[in-house]
Amino acid sequence: MQAKRKLLALEPGGSPEHPLDVATAAVIEPKAKSTRCPRCDEPLEVEAHEAHTGERGRLREVALACRFCGERRALWFRISAPS
Q1: Which helix (H) or strand (E) holds 2?
Q2: DSSP states of 5-72
């Protein structure tokens, strides 16, 4: 599972360095909720949604958890539309 986590971090949304680009914050939670658990393939649930602003732009970190196997992961989004 450790190798799979490393691969997930390199995919879009897997880290702040590789965020998923979205036009508006309104689409972040629906996109996050459509993510499947990397361990058991069940839907993940949103636990928290946090905004970050810095040199990479306006980032959002969504903490997700699987209610079936307990796996946790974060998805990163960058809001690319002007504010």
Answers
A1: helix 2-10
A2: HHHHHHSTTSSTTSPEEES-GGGHHHHHHTPBPTTT-PBEEEEEEEEEEETTEEEEEEEEEETTT--E
Q: Quick one: pLDDT at residue 83?
A: 56
pLDDT at 78 (0 to 100): 95
Domain boundaries, the chain: 2-79
Region of 13 (left: φ > 0; alpha: ψ -120 to 50; beta: rest) is left
Nearest to 15 by CA among 72, 58, 61: 61
Residue 56 one-letter amino acid: R
Task: Give 81's DSSP letter.
Answer: S
